[in-house]
Write a structure and sequence with these properties.
This protein has helices at residues 2-30, 35-96, 102-105. By secondary structure, it is an all-alpha fold.
Length: 108
């Protein structure tokens, strides 16, 4: 479920950045300005878009790290629960094994 959410966030950020950059460039290209001024505006916007992409990547990276920590914690909890279950079942099986004192087989 976390993978879906992370994937959705990445898709949203990439789509937003691409749309913002395309809209700005089209607006600049169709606006009445000299070539030099247009190139300057495009260069400035490219720098802004790069910063936006960097910020988006950092946010996504932080969320992914959180997700990884949660998965590790849950995995360790699951492993501990399985180990406890196995130890419990080993004890139960040992009590039922032949040669084990009779008094312990009846739970006394």
């Amino acid at each position: 479920m976390s993978d879906n959410r992370d994937s959705h966030i990445v898709d949203s950020v990439v789509t937003f950045i691409a749309g913002a950059a395309a809209g700005f460039i089209l607006g600049i290209l169709f606006a009445p300005a000299s070539g030099k001024e247009t190139r300057k505006k495009i260069k400035e916007q490219a720098a802004k878009t790069g910063e936006m992409a960097k910020d988006g990547y950092e946010k996504i990276s932080m969320e992914a790290e959180k997700g990884i920590r949660v998965v590790k914690e849950k995995t360790n909890e699951g492993i501990d629960a399985i180990k406890d279950f196995i130890e419990k079942k080993k004890g139960e099986m040992a009590k039922k094994a032949p040669g084990y004192p009779e008094e312990n087989q009846t739970g006394k």
